[in-house]
Design brief:
CATH superfamily of the largest domain: Class I glutamine amidotransferase (GATase) domain
Largest sheet: 9 strands, mixed
Number of helices: 14
CATH architecture of the largest domain: 3-Layer(aba) Sandwich
Bound molecules: xanthosine-5'-monophosphate
Shape: globular
Number of strands: 20
Number of domains: 3
Helix content: 25-40%
Distance between the termini: 39 Å
Structural class: alpha/beta
CATH class of the largest domain: Alpha Beta
Strand order of the largest sheet: 2-1-3-4-11-10-9-6-7
Radius of gyration: 25 Å
CATH topology of the largest domain: Rossmann fold
Amino acid sequence: MILIVDFGSQTTHLISRRLKDIGITSKIIDPEKLMVALNESSPAGIILSGGPASVYEKNAPSIDKRIFELNLPILGICYGWQLMTQLLGGNVESGKKEYGPTTLRVYDFHDLFYGAPDKFIVFESHGDTVVKLPAGFAIMASTPSVEYAAVGNKARKMYGVQFHPEVHDTRFGKQLLENFATRICGLGVKPVKLDLNSMVEEIKVKVDKNKVIGAFSGGTDSAVAGALVAKAIGRQFIPVYIDSGLMREETLGRIKDTFPKVLGIPVKIIHARKEFLQALNGVTDPEQKRKVIGKLYIDLFQAEAAKHKNVRFLLQGTTYADFIHSQGTKRSAHIKSHHNVGGLPKNLPFKLLEPLRYFYTDEVRKIGLKIGLPREVVFQQPFPGPGHAVRIIGEVTTDRLNKQVLADSIVLDEMQKAGQYTKVFQCWSIMTGINSTAVKGDGRFYGEIIAIRVVKSKDRMTADWARLPYNLLAKLSTRLVNEVPGISRVVYDITTKPPATMEWE
Ligand code: XMP
């Protein structure tokens, strides 16, 4: 087992996930619990995670220096490495911020980089940098701007990396963690298998004779969660779809036709576009939007649930990434409130049933296929719970929503025709809320700018913008300015995550 000390990075849980993939157990603990945890378990190694703090901040999280005397292998990542440096007598400098992809050049191919190529892409996200190594450490790899990007003190089995090996976009990251676990900590690997029967069994036992009302969104996560529950408890499950009008055009059709066939039970549809637009009237703050939508969802669910007896559980398709994004671990910075977790009122009369809470998107898809859902449902692009509302910057009016739905359908149509839809993680349009000048006919015209965002990603924690063919971008631009009324200009978003989140709000 490996202990992961959480200093609050958005991606601490991905370290655990990568280890889980290769069959290594890990436990995430807070820094102040480290000595107790060491007494209670005997880990083969320790990983110190990244985190948003600077080692120079007042109250910056720290650890007991005695862990460096235990002869245990230690890997520090980003903040974890900077903290190690400070505690072991090196120097950290503030203020040299770097975010996104960069090229790592490897000099030492033993242990940590065993089997690695001499150059590969890594993801960095840091504000401080190590400028003087503690005694006994040597450079193993550098990036163009960070000399000490990976270092090691082999005699004491201590290593530090400035980049994030746990994120998918660090190309060799999983292997690096595997090397740490196997070659340095001496653990064996054994990949874990998903066990559908035990998941279904768990739901049966938990629900017993009660009823579950389903929070269907039409997306993969809630479809897989719904199919699992339907398989486990059949008609004790009440699947409900709230038609907020904020979802993609094809979603309603799918809910009416495909879902009842797969689930073996009909889906109750509540038409509520008007109510959502009313609730969003005058709301421009992104967090407020998320909260308003989340609350209305729950109110409508509650009203529906009140019509049924014995409803004890509310099904949510919350995945691990949703959970981390909305709440994070104890120390991580709050980024945004995903409506399926953060917007729930505290006095909910249901218990939450979240069968996918500990799974990432790729695992959820595997479960979906195993359970027999059609590929177009399992491999559809993720769509945010608050839907088009977080893709319309500023107020969501009927007029702007209609334009967004149309623009989004044009983006999807052209992406599909060009064979690009399945090659990317997500693609969509954004009503930017910014106007610009144009010439239409022979007159001056002042109208809204539409942005297009197309991203490639594996686990949502990091993303890169898709290098789409120019002729596809040209087609999109022409269609959007011509077919969506009142549009003056089209721009393409070329920002990686981090620093930008995928959604604009
Ligand atoms: P961000 O914008 O946080 O998005 O980089 C990461 C992924 O999450 C989706 N997303 C949401 N999903 N409820 C959801 O269910 C939400 O409130 C929400 N906000 C963002 C986003 O589309 C991307 O896949």
